[in-house]
Amino acid sequence: MKKFLALLLAVAMTLALVACGGNGANNGANNGGNSTNNSGESADSGDASGDTIKIAIIGNTTGDYAQYGIPVSNGANLYIDQLNANGGINGKQVEVVEYDDKGDGVEAVNAFNLAMDQGITAVIGSVLTGPTITLADATYEVNMPQISASATAQGVTQIDPEDESAGIRTNVFRSCFIDPFQGQTMAHYAADKLSATTAAILYESGSDYSEGCMNGFVEACGELGIEIVATEAFATGDKDFNAQMTKIAAANPDVVFMPFYYSEAGLAITQGRQAGLTATILGADGFGGIKDYASAEDLEGTVYGSGYAPGTESVAQFEADYEETYGEAVPNMFAPLAYDAAMLLCEGLKAAEEQGLTAGSDEYKQAVIDAIASMNGVEGITGSYTFDEYNNPEKSVAMIQLQDGVEAFTEFYSFN
Questions:
Q1: Residues in Cβ contact with 363 at an 8 Å cutoff, skipping those fewer than 6 apart
Q2: Any idea what DSSP says for residue 142?
Q3: pTM
Q4: Which domains does the chain have, with CATH numbers?
Q5: In degrees rounded to 5, what are phi and psi of residue 169?
Q6: Vertex 140 angle, CA 393 and 377, to 5°
Q7: Which residues 6+ apart lie within 8 Å of 271 measured at CB?
Q8: What is the pLDDT of residues 197-242, one digit of tens each?
């Protein structure tokens, strides 16, 4: 009933927007040949024809955290542009309709409803966890293939992470890691590589991302015999971490796990060092870009797990292509993860095309889903993809260490 009411609300809001006749502003992403506006119409085409396969990209390319949404848009569009330039799929061009959900779940469902009217057959998105879960509820109802490059919470693919009997959204996938896995990885790394026996935690209360990573870390520490000597929390929007970091410094842990985003983490690390903290700082993938948010001295030795190994041979061509297309270096891991998400989705589209199915039909969509779910060792630029029973990728973690103010890839790490 809750899903039904949520969808009714989304449809009502969509009709209200149409009645007002507003299409909104340009989504702000620097896309290549697939640029679109918020109406969902492509720059050079209307409805899909037999010569195109239409998909949607839905994400937050304006507002808070657009620094994640824009690279996702860019990475996905880069792959699709290159695919189309090389002949597309089965002689058909992949046509993108793109929407800015502004990081809001209702906006994401509104966008999906508009995309459905455009005749899409698959979705890349959303970016942030909350909107992605809301979008996943809508796509699950109609069995629309969906893949996210960045939403890490268990609840994206699992209907109820607390109740496995509730099952999974069989149509939803991701190219990134899940939150508990990130926490488990960092605990194992602390034991294996840093010989840590004590740890402290600072996390963001109420954040699915932060709490999911924390829970995985705590669980693994218990298994590994690492003692948690301090656990401190902060509220979303806080900038003063002095009280928490003073308590953590007094506990004198070997490592401190901080599963939240780089801007707040930079402040917390700076304040922790001022309080006398000497421990090694550990982060999850939200640390990408942290070098610009604290001094090189305070960050020295900090380690975080990432889905992307910058500067390595496997991503060299992608990095060159991205900079040539968008005029800037790859800003964070979300661009390459989106490139892989688009690749995985298009591999699914190829499988459906090979069966001679009609794009947009129920049979076509199921064929795409089946093809992605059965992938085994499909190579992307961020790793080799095989999906587990929850539609999550199984691949190694790229470990990034802060060295003289530089975020340097050190190794691929796996504890399994």
A1: 357
A2: T
A3: 0.80
A4: 2-177+315-382 (3.40.50.2300), 179-306+397-413 (3.40.50.2300)
A5: -80, 100
A6: 20
A7: 240, 241, 242, 245
A8: 999 999 999 998 899 999 999 999 999 999 999 999 999 999 999 9
